[in-house]
Amino acid sequence: MSNMSFSFSDLIAGYVTDFDSSKGDFGTFALKTSDGRKFQVALTSMTYAELVRNLDEPYFDCTRQISSMLVPNCYLFVYGIFYPEAGEYKFEAKHIVFLGRTENEYLFEKPDWWVKQIQSLANFYLKAQFEDGEIDYRKYRTGIGLVGSKENSNRQETDTISRLVYGFATAYMMTGDDRYLEAAEKGTEYLREHMRFLDEGEGICYWYHAVDVKPDSSKQKIFSSEFGDDYDAIPAYEQIYALAGPTQTYRVTGDPRIMKDIELTINLFNKHFLDKTDKGGFFSHIDPITLSPYSETLGHNRAKKNWNSIGDHAPAYLINLWLATGEEEYANFLEYTFDTIEKRFPDYDHSPFIQERFYEDWSHDTTWGWQQNRAVVGHNLKIAWNLMRMNHLKPKEKYIALAEKIAEIMPAIGSDQQRGGWYDVVERLLKPGQEVHRFVWHNRKAWWQQEQAILAYLILTGSLDKPEYQRHAREAAGFYNTWFLDYAGGGVYFNVLADGLPYLLGTERGKGSHSMSGYHSFELAYLACVYTNLLITKQPMDLYFKPKPGGFKDNILRVAPDILPPGSVQIGNVWINGQKYSDFDASSLTVKLPSTQDELKIRVRLLPTQMSFDATLLEVTNGTANISLTGSLDASAVGHFQEVLVKATEKPVKRLVLLLQDLQCITTAGLRALIFTKQKLGPNVDIYIVGAPDNVKQFLQMSGFYEGITVLDQYETVEMASL
Q1: Are 451 and 379 in contact (CB under 8 A)?
Q2: Are the C-beta atoms of residues 187 and 137 closer than 8 Å to each other?
Q3: What angle (nearest 5°) sits at the alpha carbon of residue 214, between those of residues 211 and 218?
Q4: Residue 703 in this model has a pLDDT that exceeds 80
Q5: Dihedral of alpha carbons 488, 494, 499, 500, sign
């Protein structure tokens, strides 16, 4: 193949090393890929450039700024054409995507990037499933097309409803939008009413594979799986993911009925999937009639164990269950699954990938179905990500060792180090003469595997603070946010080609299928926000809850966003129904709920423990913006303060209320920010200072800032002062 002599288009991702405006017709820059290879990229008269943008954001052209933005260490994507000339290929750029305005800016690290993305995703699925009308799950269908249209099918799969419920519950936690919680609660109720099988005699609960809605609106229940290699069995992963949505809803509401379903489904796992011999682990399938993993009717699934039956418990529901309850029973369950993974899954004497399928005695099953002796790249990354979470709960050196080994091995064999992004399924072993692990079907890239890479390297960065991990996290997040977001149709693409262009054939064309619903993209938005803000960039984050009266044990609401490094996060403020509330334990991340039958909407502001200042936009209503300031408003805090001000005044306001009860001090740099704010708002905006401590009051008085503003001791008197 040394005589390749045709032009072709492709993508390069890399870091700018230098730019020469005098070279070529329009300038040339050098680009170094993630693995250190260099390309010369020529600009042309038709080269155009843009900034990476979020869902629902407009195109931002920066073509005229190309030459000034091509600075050393700027990471970017450039799509262009390779031309064969003089025995080599010359690359000319057609399309450049910058990830920020400077070499140090990554727009997806802004505090609200992922919040805005999850809002857009939730709105997309509300419209697709319920036409933006009444939330009625009788309308729900598993198959959703590219632009959100329902496919010609009457099937409602349990797992896809549960995954979408997870998405809506998570979107509520991040935004406080009541419509999202309504969708989560109604979806959970629909699952309980139509997909749940209660066996009170055995004390277990299991979930139907699906229901088919008939023309007369009656329902045909589908008990055992009708999907591919799981046909006529009850696979563990379907029972696991049936809990994903209800458990996340439970985190928000504490509904005891949901908790009962979870407990009974865990009974199912322990009674019928758990290998109670000294071999341990969970079987991957059981027979739908006998509930036995040994039934001959299971065929190639008889007495087998796999990644899903062991590893999916933690991310799908079990970590969230522990976060909501703090129960040692669930911590021990988590420890059991991770000890099993660490002991049984590595196979580094034979392959750089973990092993995923096993016989009953843990010998390797290399002949099963589509997988054979093949590796799913994302499962390796998923193990690294979840091992770090578990290590924060029950620290073990072996957890960190395996997570770091995976993190160090995987980029060279699982990622695309020229174009960016992460691959799907590859052969676990190299054949004689091969240097690259072969793709099983294609070199496309799936949305969910990008999630695993982003979250793995983000939590490794936040936990171990190694620059190499942050580089991989940024590269993965850059690829996902540049190429997977569907700006025209909404939502995210299932697959893109190696060069980032969307792949739109078959079931991979749509936004809803057996494999895709509202889980991975929502989970990514949530946890990328948690890890980035609270562990890496040290920014605050708000979470919302709506507990039912008496729902949570001892009236204790647990608000830990994830299993993070101990002591890394604390509660800054709590508001109940818009009013500040003080009965919380900042370090243990718990709120003591008031004993009442009234509806409670809880807003919790979480802070990195190293953070010394916070500005919280409480609300903007009737032309009044209320901002609470905490800590020390000094030079390092001015940027964050101004970002919140911009958000508060996106629409014209008549009144700015600054709540300073928790402001410990203000420096001259902070004071200049206040004076500048007052000037920019102009004379038609009234400014109120409420509850300032004496030292802050005195400093503001000495500066002359009090002139032309209203100073009050109590927030409630603001409305009175305006009458």
Answers
A1: no
A2: yes
A3: 75
A4: no
A5: positive
pLDDT at 342: 98
| pLDDT of 715 strictly over 80 | no
Contact 514, 227 (CB under 8 A): yes
Q: Which residues of 287-306 are buried (b: 16+ CB within 10 A; e: fewer)?
A: bbeebebebeebeebbbbbb
The amino acid present at 46, given as its one-letter code, is M
Tens-digit pLDDT profile for residues 663-700: 888 877 787 888 888 888 888 888 999 988 888 888 77
Q: Distance of CA 471 to CAs 11, 478, 685, Å?
A: 19, 10, 44
Per-residue pLDDT, 720: 40
Residue 550, both tokens: 């008496």
Q: Helices 668-681 and 638-648, interaxial angle, to 10°?
A: 20
User: Which DSSP state fits 271?
Assistant: I
Each residue of 495-552: pLDDT tens digit?
A: 999 999 999 998 899 999 999 999 999 999 999 999 999 999 999 999 999 999 999 9
CB atoms closer than 10 angstroms to residue 515: 16
Q: How far is CA 4 from CA 80, 81, 432, 435, 443, in A?
A: 18, 14, 25, 20, 20
Q: Which residues contact 471 (CB under 8 A, 6 or more apart)?
A: 34
Cα distances (angstroms) measured from residue 303 to each of 25, 228, 273, 308, 333 = 67, 18, 10, 14, 21
User: What would the pLDDT profile of 118-165 be if each residue is shown by its tens digit?
Assistant: 999 999 999 999 997 899 999 999 999 999 999 888 999 999 999 999
| Amino acid at residue number 616 | T
- Tell me the average pLDDT across 271-284: 98
d(CA 112, CA 525): 10
Q: Looking at domain 612-722, what is its CATH homologous superfamily?
A: STAS domain (3.30.750.24)
Q: How many CA atoms lie within 13 A of 269 on its CB side?
A: 26
Task: List residues bridging with 52 in a β-sheet.
Answer: none
Under 8 Å CB-to-CB from 680, ≥6 apart: which residues?
A: none
From CA 524, how far away is CA 540, in angstroms rounded? 18
Which residues have C-beta within 8 Å of that of residue 275, sequence separation ≥ 6?
Answer: 281, 282, 283, 293, 305, 360
Report the share of the chain in percent with pLDDT over 70.
98
CATH no. for 8-105: 2.40.50.140
Token pair, residue 114, equals 């992922």
Backbone angles phi, psi at 670, to 5 degrees: -65, -40
Rounded to an integer, the average pLDDT of 277-294 is: 97
- Res 716 pLDDT > 70: no
Q: Are 473 and 458 in contact (CB under 8 A)?
A: yes
Are the C-beta atoms of residues 14 and 32 closer than 8 Å to each other? Answer: yes
d(CA 535, CA 464): 10
Short-list 561, 566, 487, CA closest to 531: 561
Ranges of beta strands (E only) in 477-566 are 495-496, 541-545, 556-558
Q: Which of 244, 312, 247 is closest to 273 using CA atoms?
A: 312
Q: Could you name the CATH architecture of 112-536?
A: Alpha/alpha barrel (1.50)
Least confident range from 29-38, 63-72, 561-570, 697-706: namely 697-706
Q: How many residues are there in the chain? A: 723
Residue 340: partners with Cβ closer than 8 Å, 6 or more residues away: 280, 281, 310
Please state the domain extents for the chain.
8-105, 112-536, 612-722
CA distance 309 to 354: 15
The answer to whether 187 and 196 have CB atoms below 8 angstroms apart is no
**DSSP collapsed to 3 states, 284-330:** CEECCCCCCCCCHHHHHHCCEEEHHHHHCHHHHHHHHHHHHHCCHHH
Closest CA to 155 of 505, 489, 517: 517
The C-alpha atoms of residue 548 and residue 196 are separated, in whole angstroms, by: 22
Q: Which residues pair with 196 in a beta bridge?
A: 207
